[in-house]
Amino acid sequence: MRSAEFDRSHVLEQAMHTFMEHGYAKASMQKLTQATGLHPGSIYCAFGSKKGLFIEAVSFYHQQKLQAFESLFSEDQPVLSSLKELLANTVQECVQNTCAKVCLLTRSLNEIEGQDPEIARLIATNLQQIELSLGEQIARAQRQGEAISDEEPLALARFITMGVYGMRTYAFTNADQSILEQMATQLLRAIEKH
Amino acid sequence: MRSAEFDRSHVLEQAMHTFMEHGYAKASMQKLTQATGLHPGSIYCAFGSKKGLFIEAVSFYHQQKLQAFESLFSEDQPVLSSLKELLANTVQECVQNTCAKVCLLTRSLNEIEGQDPEIARLIATNLQQIELSLGEQIARAQRQGEAISDEEPLALARFITMGVYGMRTYAFTNADQSILEQMATQLLRAIEKH
DNA sequence: GATATACTTGAATGTTCATTCAAGTGCCCT
DNA sequence: AGGGCACTTGAATGAACATTCAAGTATATC
User: Fold this and answer.
1) Is B192 helix (H, G, I), strand (E, B) or coil?
2) Distance (Å, rounded) from C-alpha A109 to C-alpha A169?
3) C-alpha distances in Å from residue B112, one per residue of A4, A95, A143, B41, B65
4) Within 46-65 of chain A, which residues have Cβ less than 7 Å from strand C?
5) What is the pLDDT of residues A31-50, one digit of tens each?
6) Residue B131: its pLDDT value, please?
7) Residues B31, A106: Cα–Cα separation, whole Å
8) At the fourth CATH level, which superfamily is domain B1-58?
9) From the CA atom positions of chain B, what is the Rg in Å?
10) A181 interfacial to chain B (CB closer than 8 Å)
11) Band of the pLDDT at B194, cuts 50, 70, 90?
């Protein structure tokens, strides 16, 4: 036996960046080999295909985001504070001038539409998982008597989720921080109790 | 002299559908020649390049949407009714199982990010124009004493715009009509007076 | 240290792509 | 009626693409 010479996480990190920067179609194998330092043969050995690498990169991204989400919504803090922070972080990402401004999931979902149902389903599932987690947090906020609307928690979670998707696309037309912050405020106000 | 044998509008309509169905990158010249009935030479003669055809198709789409917008917001109807109708129409588009479910502008903006600033700027300008028109209508609603928030009209317009972008991406994860309708209701409620 | 077993290498493959262009065709103006 | 011009045609072009594979190389085991 002989173990692989590359660090899989590191390779996925670089591939993820390449897909975020160029999108799926325009991230050529040449760019991917340059970014990861792997030769084509190694990528095909380790991931099967460009699509296989993409799927793993998407999952990698998803895991990162999910982890960030869960560490943000810790038990000993009001849910609404965490949610505010989540939106503030999203705004910060959107105004960056790096590939960090794009959400690999939403961007790829837009790109892939009508092309590859398998990838589309995977991304949709990933996004729904975060939406579901948010729903649980909102339910907790209601139980804890925070100043939040008493609508169905999942409906509120969907609304916030939709808002985040909208902000990300909106930021492509106008990446103005104060405008995005205002949107975040409007979104929060919409789910507050009144 | 000799006039072109094809109808430019018809060609743009078909090209538009092709780009909506496959996206910019995956709409190959072969697909475009089949859809438009034009030969490559004719396309290059009439539009210069695939990019040129895309830019005109995007403008064509934009004009259609702008026209639909302006005929929806007629003077003799409350703005809030028209807005409700606009959102209902958006929901209807999103739940279709044809290429009509995608907005060529927002989808392409997502796809093109980081690839072609010229196209990105064009699309952003188009989207901002609709946002601006919406702002004018919201200002009119306020003047006419409709039950709408007294925040800055442009801020309200941005919020609705963001909501529509968000719904379109959300629909890719879950094209459930009742869920999208609920989102539309939530969006409207957020800009109502209370 | 020898051998087997994987992993690595990167040039080669065949396909698909956007684009070009020279030949062909029909229309308009005189 | 006929000459000239612009549009049409579609095969040809070369670049870029994802993918493959045979040769090379390092490591683990004995």
Assistant:
1) strand
2) 12
3) 36, 17, 43, 25, 20
4) 46
5) 999 999 999 999 999 999 99
6) 98
7) 26
8) Homeodomain-like (1.10.10.60)
9) 19
10) no
11) confident
Tokens of B77: 């109807």
Residues B60, B51: contact at Cβ < 8 Å? no
Question: Is B162 at the interface with chain A, CB within 8 A?
Answer: yes
pLDDT at A1: 57
CA of B51 to C1' of C17 (A): 14
CATH code matching the domain that covers B73-191, chosen among 2.60.120, 2.60.40, 2.60.290, 1.10.357: 1.10.357
Q: Where are the domains of chain B?
A: 1-58, 73-191
Torsion of CA B69, B70, B75, B80, to 10 degrees: 10
Closest CA to A111 of B6, B111, B155: B111
Query: How many Å apart are CA B177 and CA B192, to the nearest integer?
Result: 23
When pLDDT is averaged across residues A130-151 and rounded to a whole number, the result is: 97
Inform me whether the C-beta atom of residue A163 falls under 8 Å from chain B C-beta atoms: yes
Nucleotides on strand D with an atom closer than 7 A to protein CB? 4-12, 16-22, 26-29
Q: Rounded distance, CA B171 to CA B59, Å?
A: 24
B90, two tokens: 């958006």
Cβ proximity of A25 and A51 under 8 Å: no
User: Do A190 and B194 count as a contact with CB atoms less than 8 A apart?
Assistant: no
| Other Cβ atoms closer than 10 A to A90 | 19
**Selected residue of A18, A113, A185 to mutate for chain B interface (largest B Cβ count, 10 A):** A113
Please tell me the distance from the alpha carbon of residue A22 to that of residue A28, in angstroms, as a whole number.
9
